[in-house]
């Protein structure tokens, strides 16, 4: 079962609660003293497990200590382990967490929000590439940063954690439990999910603009209907981007589908503003770091992402 182990190794209650606040009320989350872990998983539409280890016995533990504990017979081994350490306490802006994958994976730094957004997509098959991206971007040990210069601040000797952009947003992403259970979103094609139901005419217009963007936007493909599935289900009314991304899963068919690692959302901003700019939520590299694009370029974007002709950074930079 996919999952994350979150271990508290520091003794500062305020820091710990800040980390948990930023991560949100994640699905399948189990804290000591709450419901049984199996029950927490059973309540979710997509099985995944977040075990929060906050026993005082872990105070002062290192990543090596946690790795050794996971090597014991019969122990559930999570996809990712994240733990607080001295750097989490020192850096109140980002609260970086030390993370590693398995017993032999390289360690890297990640913010609580980025760890939470990654947890929401753990069930997807691209986890390895996402973790590799994190390891390359923010490795915990960088030889060329090791120095004997004792005058430099210890924080200066570390690379920024993955997810700084999320923590720095005016309204950073945070998962909250939906008021009602949401149905899973099966990604046989790229998905555009409607979450605002105030204007049916605006929705019809949006679908038309995405499917048939017109000349000047794409002169090779004139109809993207076969590339995007439109989810017009009132069950998603008012759903947040984080709630939507948590429900996206791959098709059960054996045939490999050519889809991009994003989910598209038509929220209140999309439906009520003249440009109808669609919210794009990445599901890989930096999951949850959303941005907007014009509806006329949606088809071109997902087609190029699906075949690997472009990556998400090409579109995020263009739309910054």
Question: Can you give keywords for this protein?
Answer:
alpha/beta; six-stranded mixed beta sheet; five-stranded mixed beta sheet; 320 residues
List the helices and strands and how they pair.
Blueprint: E1 3-7, H1 13-23, E2 29-31, H2 37-42, E3 49-53, H3 63-70, E4 80-83, H4 86-90, E5 97-100, E6 108-110, H5 112-119, H6 127-137, H7 164-168, E7 185-187, E8 190-194, H8 200-211, E9 228-231, H9 241-245, E10 248-250, E11 262-266, H10 268-272, E12 278-282, E13 291-293, H11 298-306, H12 312-318
Parallel strand pairs: 1-3, 1-4, 2-3, 7-10, 8-9, 8-11
Antiparallel strand pairs: 4-5, 5-6, 11-12, 12-13
Helix pairs in contact: 1-5
Quick description:
The protein contains twelve helices and 13 strands. The protein is an alpha/beta fold and 320 residues long.
Task: Describe the structure in your own words.
The protein is 29% helix and 16% strand. The chain has a six-stranded mixed beta sheet with strand order 2-3-1-4-5-6. The protein has a five-stranded mixed beta sheet with strand order 9-8-11-12-13. A two-stranded parallel sheet has the order 7-10. It has helices spanning 13-23, 37-42, 63-70, 86-90, 112-119, 127-137, 164-168, 200-211, 241-245, 268-272, 298-306, 312-318, and strands at 3-7, 29-31, 49-53, 80-83, 97-100, 108-110, 185-187, 190-194, 228-231, 248-250, 262-266, 278-282, 291-293. It contains twelve helices and 13 strands. α1 packs across α5.
């Amino acid at each position: 079962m996919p999952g994350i182990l979150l271990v508290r190794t520091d003794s500062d209650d305020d820091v710990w609660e800040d980390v948990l606040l930023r991560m949100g009320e994640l699905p399948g989350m189990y804290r000591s003293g709450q419901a049984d872990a199996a029950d927490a998983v059973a309540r979710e539409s997509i099985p995944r497990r977040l075990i929060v280890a906050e026993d005082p016995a872990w105070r002062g533990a290192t990543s090596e200590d946690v790795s050794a504990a996971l090597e014991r017979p019969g122990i559930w081994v999570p996809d990712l382990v994240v733990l607080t350490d001295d750097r989490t306490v020192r850096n109140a802006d980002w609260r970086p967490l030390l993370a590693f994958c398995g017993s032999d994976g390289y360690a890297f730094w990640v913010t609580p929000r980025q760890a939470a957004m990654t947890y929401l997509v753990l069930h997807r098959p691209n986890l390895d590439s996402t973790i590799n991206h994190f390891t390359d971007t923010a490795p915990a040990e960088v030889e060329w940063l090791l120095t004997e210069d004792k005058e430099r601040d210890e924080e200066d000797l570390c690379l920024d954690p993955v997810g700084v952009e999320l923590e720095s947003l005016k309204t950073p992403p945070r998962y909250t439990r939906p008021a009602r259970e949401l149905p899973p979103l099966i990604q046989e094609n790229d998905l555009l999910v409607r979450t605002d139901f105030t204007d049916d005419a605006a929705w019809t217009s949006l679908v038309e603009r995405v499917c048939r963007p017109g000349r000047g936007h794409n002169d090779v493909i004139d109809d993207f209907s076969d590339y995007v599935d439109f989810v017009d289900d009132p069950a998603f009314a008012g759903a947040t981007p984080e709630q939507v991304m948590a429900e996206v899963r791959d098709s059960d068919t054996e045939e490999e589908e050519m889809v991009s690692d994003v989910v598209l959302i038509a929220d209140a901003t999309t439906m009520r503003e003249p440009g109808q700019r669609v919210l794009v939520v990445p599901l890989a590299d930096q999951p949850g770091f959303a941005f907007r694009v014009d509806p006329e370029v949606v088809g071109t974007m997902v087609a190029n992402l699906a075949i690997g002709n472009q990556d998400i950074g090409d579109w995020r930079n263009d739309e910054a």
